[in-house]
Amino acid sequence: MTASINDVAQAVGVSASTVSRALRGRPGVSDEVRDRIAAVAAQLGYTASRSASSLASGRTYTIGVLVPYVGRWFFGTVLDAAEKVFSTAGYDVLLYNLGSPETRKRFFTKLPVRKRVDAVLSLLIPDDDESAALRSLGVPLATTVGGTRPGFTVVGIDDRAGTESAVRHLVNLGHRRIGMISGASGPLHWTTPIERRNAYLDVLAEAGIEHDAALEADGDYTVEGGERAMTELLAASRPPTAVFAQSDEMAMGALRALRRHRLKAPDDVSVVGFDDHELADVVGLTTVAQPVAEQGAEAARLLLRQLDEPGAEPPRHVQMPIRLVLRETTAPPRPRGPQ
Amino acid sequence: MTASINDVAQAVGVSASTVSRALRGRPGVSDEVRDRIAAVAAQLGYTASRSASSLASGRTYTIGVLVPYVGRWFFGTVLDAAEKVFSTAGYDVLLYNLGSPETRKRFFTKLPVRKRVDAVLSLLIPDDDESAALRSLGVPLATTVGGTRPGFTVVGIDDRAGTESAVRHLVNLGHRRIGMISGASGPLHWTTPIERRNAYLDVLAEAGIEHDAALEADGDYTVEGGERAMTELLAASRPPTAVFAQSDEMAMGALRALRRHRLKAPDDVSVVGFDDHELADVVGLTTVAQPVAEQGAEAARLLLRQLDEPGAEPPRHVQMPIRLVLRETTAPPRPRGPQ
DNA sequence: CTGTTAGCGCCTTCAA
DNA sequence: TTGAAGGCGCTAACAG
Question: Residue ranges of the HTH lacI-type domain (chains A, B) (predicted)?
């Protein structure tokens, strides 16, 4: 059907090897022949079959990217940036959307990327078995989430510092009843919610504020979950005057819940998010900003470097800067408290 | 390094052909042998090399998905849904993020998907040359954007009807100065902005409202662009009392601009969006809802069907339902008009 | 600088 | 029901 390397070779009157060398820019081909080959290849619309060349060379020029939810802003943004780095370097991206436990399980048992990719970027946090499965691929591994783990290059942020800056901000404003909307750690083996929770507890403790379990609710890292969680918190006998949400999407859900209850941020309740979602500014959300796209790009670059220099010891952990962005959803508590 | 089909064959004491047949569930293998092969394969962690099998069979079990901006909510959501359909059916997804003209050009000249995919789902609208390039791949083609085009199955919405419902809603509320924030059609060869504009002009005409060019501004389909566009409109000698934005992201930018000008929707200006973005509800945005994920899923399904039934004539155009969702950013104009 | 010779790992006839 | 042989299209030695 489509032209093969032999068609080109025949048309030019050289051997297939020469065509192969010429088209891949390898040395050992006269300029004259190289030009003729390029011309004929273009005219025939020849593109080397990736299957055949990777079978022969062992290189796939493909990167596997594992994502929990492509549609979620954070992951979409990381993926976008990473893909650009990969494609610029001549690599294709094989995308695996592993949101549900079933797809995830199927992926890790069948491991369809085996012999198919030169490296893997995981935007989800593999548990120990999954990590081992990925390591068994024998290719460079990186992730933008979770803590350090053997065999992986991790590009991330200081979750503790980020959380501390958010909660301290609320404390400094004078809040004493500070709630938290966290994300389920559930099947994701995600340490982020836990680390952020610990930091939250520590800041409360250092401020001499007693922790109240009724001030914590799970928001599942979604807008809807955030709304539910805020609704829960508002139903407490003594609701919080401020809330730290572990993600902007949950914070936005919280804002929606407030609106539904005819309450306002920051007048009735202050709200801080985490991420600096592209729409955080639209709703005026105070939040902890992290460089999302940059994390994806950096992880991609580190992976490519490992591919280029197979010998070198890759960096284990790269920390990106975070900063608190003050907007309009936080203020001192009302003199008399809500209501 | 990793186990090959021969390793499995040897370990079981059968030939490679039998292993191949057994593992792919083809007939002609006794149950007893099949079970033994399955066991050994699992134990050895054997996965067939995709490169080798597609080289031999001609099937890649891979779908190419072309996306202009993975990080944009609309595309991320479509991709998410499509990927789920593909992976459930046993296909992998090769992702191409073709936002910039350069990446796009490189993609269409080199066409790296040649011989690499069984089908292509394009979330961007190819121009005529690009369409021809894709057709030259000789695989089923689908898209979720733009109008009907030869060789493609199109899953979309009725842009005209959607726009009409939005603009008529504003007219019915009593607005006469109705602005529009549109998206650049620029290098994307996107007919959507044009169709929506035509529908907008038609509704104005049918309502006997004279069109005022100063009431149109370009928002580039981004939040920032929407903000700029709204700012522009507000600077007009007679600013609009209502604005139709061609996407929710631009509408949200418009809301931000209003806030910056200490104006409110709908008190000072009514705003309608298009898409029903997941956060539209958070900001109370009235909008034209379209089934975004469903479009991706449906397009994916239609592509798979073409792969299953190579003979059948694929549907050319599938229309998905839209509906106007009334929220809190639209209301009748103020008795005296703004200011 | 160029051609020849072997595979890469699997699937698909065709025989048995 | 199974095995043997050949080839998918390309790349990597090795010659020349």
Answer: 3-57
